[in-house]
Amino acid sequence: xxxxxxxxxxxxxxxxxxxTLLSAFIRDHLRLTGTHRGCDTSQCGACTVxxxxxxxxxxxxxxxxxxxxxITTIEGLAGKDGELHPMQAAFKECHGLQCGFCTxxxxxxxxxxxxxxxxxxxxxxxxxLEGNICRCTxxxxxxxxxxxxxxxxxx
Amino acid sequence: xxxxxxxxxxxxxxxxxxxEDARFITGQGNYVDDIVxxxxxxxxxxxxxxxxxxxxxxxxxxxxxxxxxIRIFTGKDIAGKCxxxxxxxxxxxxxxxxxxxxxxxxxxxxxxxxxxxxxAMVVADTKEQAQxxxxxxxxxxxxxxxxxxxxxxxxxxxxxxxAPDNRCYKWGIxxxxxxxxxxxxxxxxxxIDLINNRMIPNAMEPRAANATFSRATGESTLYxxxxxxxxxRLLMCANILxxxxxxxxxxxxxxxxxxxxxxNVYPExxxxxxxxRALNCPVKWTAERSESFLSDTHGRDHxxxxxxxxxxxxxxLALRVHSDVNLGAxxxxxxxxxxxxxxxxLLAGQYKTPQLYAEVDAWFTNTAPVDAYRGAGRPxxxxxxxxxxTRCGWELGLSQDEIRRRNFITEYPYQTxxxxxxxxxxxxxxxxxxxxxxxxDSFDQRRKASEAKGLRRGIGYSSYVEACGMxxxxxxxxxxxxxxxxxxxxxxVNPTGSVTVFTGTHSHGQGHETAFAQLVAARLGVAIExxxxxxxxxxxxxxxxxxxxxxxxxxGGGAIMKALDKIEEKAKKIAAHLLExxxxxxxxxxGQLTVKGTDKKISFGEVAxxxxxxxxxxLEKLEPGLDETAFFDPPNFxxxxxxxxxxxxxxxATGVVTIxxxxxVDDFGVIVNPMLVDGQVHGGVMQGIxxxxxxxxxxxxxxxxxxxxxxxxxxxxxxxxxxxxxxGTVCTPCTSNPIGSKGAGEAGAIGAPxxxxxxxxxxxxxxxVNDIDMPATPFHVWTAIHNAKA
Lengths: 155, 790
Ligand code: FES
Ligand code: FES
Description:
The complex is a heterodimer.
Chain A: E1 2-7, E2 10-15, H1 22-29, E3 48-51, E4 54-57, E5 70-72, H2 86-93, H3 103-116, H4 122-128, H5 140-154
Parallel strand pairs in A: 1-5
Antiparallel strand pairs in A: 1-2, 3-4, 3-5
Chain B: H1 3-6, H2 21-24, E1 41-47, E2 53-59, H3 61-64, E3 69-74, H4 75-78, E4 111-112, E5 118-124, H5 127-134, E6 138-143, H6 150-153, E7 167-174, H7 176-184, E8 188-196, E9 208-214, E10 219-224, H8 229-241, E11 248-251, H9 267-279, E12 283-286, H10 289-295, E13 302-310, E14 316-328, E15 355-364, H11 378-396, H12 400-407, E16 414-415, E17 421-422, H13 427-437, H14 443-452, E18 456-465, H15 473-478, E19 487-493, E20 499-503, H16 512-524, E21 531-534, H17 552-579, E22 586-589, E23 592-595, E24 601-603, H18 604-612, E25 627-632, E26 641-651, E27 656-667, H19 674-694, E28 725-730, H20 747-764, H21 778-789
Parallel strand pairs in B: 1-12, 10-11, 14-15, 20-21, 27-28
Antiparallel strand pairs in B: 1-5, 2-4, 2-6, 3-5, 7-15, 8-13, 9-10, 9-12, 13-14, 16-17, 18-26, 19-20, 19-25, 22-23, 23-24, 26-27
Helix pairs in contact in B: 11-12, 11-20, 16-17, 17-18, 19-20
Bound molecules: FE2/S2 (inorganic) cluster (FES) (2 copies).
């Protein structure tokens, strides 16, 4: 199919089979390798991107469903001048990452979380991160990072 | 420089934010699967669907006709042409015979021995084509009965001709007769049977390997998800492919977590190198998560009986332990060492147990090979010790605090009956601090409050000790290691004063790029931003052993410290020349070299420049340049230890266990970056909680299929499992490395499981529940409560 899609603010058109997974399209065709693949059951969240304003596991949709969509990946989160998104800054400040593999998905999910639940409590943040697995951090500092970004974003 | 002087240096003990984060939070990391070479081809593996079968034929003809397929390799193609995957450790049995060491070809030749074992490798133009083609490879299996349960292994069909009773080894440590004698004098004996559940490591990055080959030079490059690239190169060159090390470069770039599962040389690593050499093109493979479950090494899987002999006051007299351990179908790289020297040598724990004897029967079964998983042997030991110690206390009517205190080692160095000599520690202090942080004083009020709501509350202690900083090469060599365990470090001061550090360790989440930069900044006075740490590429770093066993700072940092000693010494000589003073009068502090007692000084940057632009330089006695390499082989292991206290609340109606608070007080010796250490504790404890409450790798006993083969069946800890952490530290500097550090990477996973289970049992005791196995899932807890009632 002829896919017309916007990725990180840039219009992209590509000739790809409609059954290509969005995660494969992002990684293999666009070579945006910040979006990771951690499972084959839509369970780990490493591949999370924001599509049309909502977080989405990019391994769970095919590009045929995404015609005309606007996608933001981890590479498109910082400002044009390279200024970090408050969530990225908070992950660094709070040591919310170790190996970095779950991190892009975790950050994208967290951005979505605060967009739709700006006043989420700690318990709600934990609930809302249910779809993202991290093996390294024990989640303590991830949750702290989300709370830190929350303060900054509501200030 | 020694630890006492070092701790007062700038940046030491500072929570410096991580240098490496800049690339990870912006999606610029470089993991193996991110690498695509020009002309890239892709491999996929046909894997055994049977746990145990004779291979009677592999028909690749239909698959070869599939679109994009370039070549299909089977066991026949490799038989007799390369070595098997070697085990890195030889265990000598109780009768003096060597362990049984069957061959492990990277593609099965005449038999398959676990579900997921590679049988054939398809190489195709695209990943999809390779994956489609594996479906068309026709494998003829002649199924045999599988051996899954270690207790049935001795009488089951033999996996390997070398081990007719499926036993790899029977091994023992300690004084058996002394233990038997002590038991005859016991006033009380406490017994326990335990299962240390099988874990599936599940680093979030699935394993991947990408090999290139240059026909011009005969050189291969392997990009792989490894914790120890030099070891991969060594074993692959010396044992498997039998090529000189100069012909293989191994690169482990950014690696997404390891936890021990990436210390092995895996069949797929060999496969892509083999295929790229045969086909003269780059060949890449990336595991699907389902392949990770089936074919990554698993961890733990011990069945143990232990008995403690005590006098009438609860002083330990002797501990006797027997474990049946599951090695899986083949010996993994560290497989034989984990349930022996990394396990039974820690069974003394923090206690003065004068007599100890442990015996281990290690069995081959038709399951994935078992190797290190965070803690590797030491969690199994601490689970035995801390479970039985708590039970000893309860049987004698002593609190968990009291039984520990009565038996703590209080003098150091302390020689245990099982080979280890603890250098330093202060275990009563760790216990005191943990009691305070956990607010044990007011536990009874909380227990009553829970009871008023119809809930049960319990508290569980675990005072663990582990051995890290592997390791003294002479000792591990005597114990059967086939490699040395020193570490290497090179410090290269560049002409304008920036510094590149080359380390033999590997960072896959630990934060070495930051911690090692702190060492250099502390010693040389250069800014942390001006230090770059290089790891993971055998063409760039000196030969080193990689990262596992919480060794990187203690041993790898030790090597960097030694290299820094040499740099400082040479810098002083250069400064002495430039300042026209004698070498002995130069002091080096905060990046300045000063003539003692004067204001004559020169900056380190100027010295570095002089070393590379030696116009005014003592060339007759000093070489130009400022670049030093050191190897550090520690004189002893390090012994981190501490006390963990877990407090749980349990709903008896549902069996749900909620961790109310989890308190850790660890002695890691000198800490370079507390933020990184806390992160290690959080992650380790969460894995320990996962083992205690959620995770278990389960094979079907009849069919040998892995029942927990996806994240839908294997419960990973998630954010909702976050306990309320309370973390403290005690510091007794380690005496066997220049930093004074003990290592922090595994403590959490070692200390946590017994604390959780002791807490669960403390809560359920009044209901008549005396035992429960991990994981204490709601189902297991509910069942235990109901069985106790019946
Ligand atoms: S890769 Fe998409 S959820 Fe795991
Ligand atoms: S940082 Fe490694 S998986 Fe989350």
